[in-house]
Amino acid sequence: MGRGRIAALAVAAALLCGAGVDSAMAQGTMNDALTRRVQAGEGKDRLLLEAKEIVYDNDNNTVSAVGDVELYYQGRTLQADRVTYDRKSGRVVAQGNARMVEANGAVITGDRFDLTEDFKNGFIDSLRVEQTVIQRGRSSRTYFTAPRAERVEGDQMVFERGTYTACEPCKEHPERPPLWQVKAARIIHNNEERMIYYENATLEFYGYPIAYMPYFWSPDPTVKRKTGFLAPHYIASSSLGTGVAIPFYWDVAPNMDLTLQPTFLSRQGVLGQAEWRHRLLTGSYNIRLAGIFQRDDTAFLPPPLGAQDRDFRGSVESTGRFNINEKWRWGWDVAVLSDKWFLANYRIKSESIQTLYLKESVSTVYLQGQGDRSWFDARGYYFRGLSSYDWQKQLPVVHPVTDYEKRADGPRPLGGETTFKLNLTSLTREATHFSQIPNINFGLFNQVPAYNGYYETCTVFQRGACLVRGFAGTFTRLSTELTWRRNYVDSMGQVWTPFAYVRADGFWNKFDTVGFQNSQIPNFIGGDDDFVGRLMPAVGLEYRYPFVAQSNDWGMHVVEPIGQVVARPNETRIGRLPNEDAQSLVFDDTTIFNWDKFSGYDRVEGGVRGNIGGQYSFTGVNGFYANALVGQSYQLAGRNSFRPGDVINVGRDSGLESRASDVVTRLLIKPNQNFTFSTRARFDENDFAMHRLETQLTTNWNPVLPLTTSVTYGKYARQPELGYDHRREGLLTSATVNVTPRWSVGGSLLFDLDRYLTFRDTFTAAYANYNAALAAGVPASQLTTPVYRRPSDYTPISTGLNLQYMDECTTFGISYSASPREIALSNGEKERVQTVLVRLELRTLGEANVKQNIGPVTSANDGTVTPTR
Q1: Any idea what DSSP says for residue 756?
Q2: By Cβ atoms counted within 10 A, which residue in 12, 314, 718, 745 is the most buried?
Q3: 264 versus 759: which is more confidently predicted?
Q4: CA angle 237, 242, 248 (to 5 degrees)
Q5: Percent over 70 (pLDDT), the chain
Q6: 118, 151 contact by CB (below 8 A)
Q7: Helices in 409-527 by DSSP H: which ranges?
Q8: Bridge partners for 261 per DSSP
Q9: Would you state the pLDDT for residue 438?
């Protein structure tokens, strides 16, 4: 802007109202003139001024605006009690409650502003800058302060003896130092580069210095992506040594970036990691690489329990998600590993790892589509077992599994709704996956300890002694299902739901009879290259009659008897076909009224079955809610599909194998929003002995009490034909207390209440094997004498504690977890693991965390050798 523009505007005002005269008419005339200039669209380069009084000093060649002064220029607004323009020097001096609002919303306050006429250069005394930042969808502020600062070309601010923080000042005592701040000899905020540079900086907590850095820099708080180093991560491990990871982020382009992270380990050398991310118009993908040439492979167990024989270890992973159009999308999530222990040994996070039941890396490629009333999903799977006990040849390669579902209105004149389902499953494995029906349940794989320290499993199928979880060779099944249903409500309020369905399945089985452990498969499952067809039609009727009673004083009661009958022919070839996807069967309140109670397509329920039950619900006027259900299932005619058991005995010990099933119940009580109690149970049909019980209690007392608790208890009777030879009983408790609005303490305890049974039976079997080995002539010096150590019933098998602080600028947490193990689990965890994790995040500056394994470790099953300390 030319130097004379502000002067010309001030002179015009002075001529209108008189020099040094406070005139309402002058203010009005000035405002009218400014309004006309804005409406005329003279552009943002014009300076607009508003004040109570304009003073022209001809002797000093200055023009002053006095009283509630506000100047607007190029998106910036300057406010003060008095603003003086020196026409000779071209400088603007603002004094008294001086305040500038930048175009980006930043607010600058100071005792005195001495700026050039375009506001781009100058000095500010007693400066304070407040900037609003939006991160992760949340608005927050950052603050700069300095006794004096210099403004350079409008894009750079130099704070002399400045401070920076993201913490809000204390409202009651604003003079107190914030929780944390960076104090430096010079702080340079470069808006063009969007970087902040600190010289001779000290990090202070509550005003006390804790760290000194001669020079460092950080991105502007408004920056979401910026090339530079990220916060380091620290590692301490007996097998890796001590080390530090120093990530470097490269903002290649707005839609792509690269992160390089070398990790320097004192015992193993340099672990290299890299991640490439790329966003396209229709989706995005990433590629993650990791690798190391080990310096000390003796830190790991020798094969087959570890990777002691490997020099180079690494992984390649990639994830992609792409939209074909509004209804179709495809993607992948794949991982290639040098060995099954690499990710765990080097503490590498992986999107492919799943730990729902077992710890494994799952790679998949998929195609999905969704219409208004239809759904399609096709995907292939490759499973990589991550336990020392996994045998890769027993894990299947799925190529692929495809599901399609389409819903439509029912045919006239029936009406209702029809559903068509299709499932195609094809998979291959190299070795049959046998597991033994044990005298002992040992972990998840039902293995019996042998005298040599390893584990005996079935190697040749014997009915009644072995379970077959998967056969070697290629298994392919195509299943289609067409269903129809319709609800009728008669004049009495009774709800009648007739339904019908037909299932058609085709099995193509090509078993590898000369491969691993398959010599007797033809005698059991059929010949080579067999095709088997199966058809299952069904008709049924469901009846409900809700009785409703409502009171304005109490609430609404609903009593609802339920009856259901399903008529079908008998299921064929039970136990003569593989079962890959229907291995889980839980009979409880959630499945009693399912038309087919099997969880997958490989099994189909047959025979005539009736399901009866009743439920009661109460909804109170004060928010109280309760629900109770009781039910039982009956095999009315035909063959009971759950009685004979198949290749893995699905149906046996389920509560459905007898003509009259066990009784299932449910109870839910929710008196208010702060309290929920739920329980479900299954009782024997003859003596009402409890076979299954699950109970959960959750409380949330906020805002009355800052306390949240949860207690979950489960007890399951023995199921010897499924491999569980003793009861299972456990208790999980957790609680979180908000000590203050910012501090919280929490923890959890997991108790295995039947561990003494496991140890008793394990000791009995081990002692029997020990005596058998002696009888067979094995020298006692080569054997380990079994020792029985009965654990405490109430010793927690898992413990977690955490302490957390969170406010608008800081997140700090310490967590401790312990998982003691007297018997090494086959999922790769150590016998005893204690971990402390410390995490500190200073908003806008960065995050640091330290993870440390502590305590004595006596054995390892994740492929590492850890000495006892």
Answers
A1: H
A2: 314
A3: 264
A4: 115
A5: 81
A6: no
A7: 521-525
A8: 273
A9: 61
Contact residues for 662 (Cβ-Cβ < 8 A; gap 6+): 587, 632, 655, 656, 682, 683, 684, 685, 691
Beta pairing partners, 497: 542
User: Measuring CA to CA, which residue among 521, 529, 386 is closest to residue 459?
Assistant: 521
Which residue carries 């305890």 as its tokens? 749
For residue 657, what are the CA distances in angstroms to 641, 685, 691? 8, 11, 14
DSSP SS3 for 672:
strand
Per-residue b/e over 67-87, b at no fewer than 16 CB within 10 Å? eebbbbbeebbbbbebbbbbb
Nearest to 72 by CA among 83, 62, 61: 83
484's tokens: 């129809």
Residues facing residue 164 across a β-bridge: 144, 182
pLDDT value of position 762: 57
Least confident range of 86-100, 383-397, 823-837: 823-837
Given a cut of 90, is residue 422 above it in pLDDT? Answer: yes
> What is the overall mean pLDDT for the chain?
81
CA distance 408 to 406: 7
Tokens found for residue 139 = 């608005």
Closest CA to 425 of 404, 399, 405, 406: 399
Which residue matches tokens 């003086």? 84
Those residues whose C-beta lies under 8 Å from the C-beta of residue 569, and which sit 6 or more positions away, are 536, 537, 606, 607, 638
Contact present, 578 and 525 (Cβ < 8 Å): yes
CA torsion 148-152-156-160 (nearest 10°) is -20
Contact 564, 542 (CB under 8 A): yes
Contact (Cβ atoms closer than 8 angstroms) between residue 454 and residue 447:
no
pLDDT band at 514 (very low <50, low <70, confident <90, very high): low
Per residue in 374-399, is it b (16+ CB within 10 Å) or e — as a string? eebebbbbbbbbbbbbbeeebbbebb
Q: Given 3-state DSSP classes, what are the helix, strand and coil percentages for the chain, each rounded to the nearest 5?
A: 10, 55, 40
- pLDDT tens digits for range 332-353: 999 999 988 888 888 888 888 7
**Strand-pair category, 233-237 with 846-854:** parallel
Compute the average pLDDT of residues 263-276.
94
Cβ proximity of 849 and 233 under 8 Å? yes
Report d(CA 62, CA 78) in Å as an integer: 18
Q: Is 724 helix (H, G, I), strand (E, B) or coil?
A: strand
Pairing of strands 374-385, 397-409: antiparallel
Name which residue leads in pLDDT, 793 or 550.
Answer: 550
- Cβ atoms of 460 and 509 closer than 8 Å: no
Which helix (H) or strand (E) is 679 found in, with range? strand 675-683
Residues 456, 488 contacting (CB under 8 angstroms): no
Of the pLDDT bands very low, low, confident and very high (cuts 50, 70, 90), residue 50 is confident
The single-letter DSSP state of residue 441 is -
Share of the chain above pLDDT 90, in %: 42
Distance CA 719, CA 653 (A): 6
Buried/exposed code over 479-503 (b: 16+ C-beta within 10 A; e: otherwise): bbbbbbbeeeeeeeeeeebbbbbeb
Q: Is the pLDDT of residue 763 over 80?
A: no
Among the ranges given (264-268, 543-547, 604-608, 788-792), the one the predictor scored with the smallest mean pLDDT? 788-792
Half-sphere exposure of 811 (CA within 13 A, CB side): 9
* Per-residue tokens: 425: 């499953």
pLDDT in tens, 191-240: 888 889 999 999 999 889 988 889 888 888 777 778 888 878 888 777 88
Whether the predicted model's global pTM rises above the 0.90 cut: no
- Are 410 and 418 spatial neighbours (Cβ–Cβ below 8 Å)? yes
- The C-alpha torsion from 296 through 299 and 303 to 307, rounded to 10°, is -60
Range list of β-strands (E), 701-755: 707-716, 728-738, 743-752
For the chain, what is the radius of gyration of the CA atoms?
37
Residue at 755: amino acid letter: R
Q: Look up residue 803 and give its two tokens.
A: 């302490």
